Amino acid sequence: MSLSEFARHRGVSRQSVMNWKKAGFVVMGEAGGVNVAETERRLSERPAIRKGGAVKPPPTNLLQGETVERAAERIVVEEGRAPHTLAEAARIKENYLAKLRQLEFDQKAGAVVEVAEVAREVSTEYAAVRAALLAMPSKVAPKVALMRSAEEVKVALDEAVSQALEGLTRDAVSVGA
User: What are the structural domain ranges in the chain?
Assistant: First the structure.
């Protein structure tokens, strides 16, 4: 059947048939005419045009007379990937849903936390350590200036470091409580 004959058969203009052909809905047979059965099938399967939307053409990688299911199998075999059966796909989906639910449970239970939250907390702690270390010389310098032996300086520095670390530990414990 020619494009014009198919247009009359469908009760549409030849331009409509040309548009369908351009969109991939019209299947041409080996003799150069329209493959009526396959074209009718494709036209019946096309989605309805919605306001603001467009009709998506069917896949262009179908061979003559090939169903969508058979094309999917052929493509998977050509790409070297084994297809999942429906049961396998359902099992995989359920496993991942179970993992997601476990993660949500663990988050609510406090067993896991988000990386961004940990990064913020570590950044805050580093800032406190930095501030304590930067403040140490001004606190220790007046004492050390009056000392006469290296041993006295060492003891004073050890004491200052211990006090700074104890202060950081108290702060961390009070935040975590």
Answer: 3-48+56-78, 130-176
164-176 per-position pLDDT tens digit: 888 777 766 666 5
C-alpha 159/C-alpha 149 separation (Å) is: 16
- Give residue-wise pLDDT tens across range 134-168: 888 888 888 888 888 999 899 989 988 888 888 77
- Tell me the two tokens of residue 164: 């700074």
Q: Is the pTM of this model over 0.85?
A: no
Separation between Cα atoms, residue 35 and residue 28, nearest integer Å: 5
Burial of 25 from C-beta contacts in 10 A (0-12 / 13-18 / 19+): buried
The alpha carbon of 166 is separated from its chain's Cα centroid by a whole number of angstroms, namely: 43
How many Cα atoms sit within 13 Å of 77 on the Cβ side? 6
Q: Distance of alpha carbon 39 from its chain centroid, rounded? A: 38
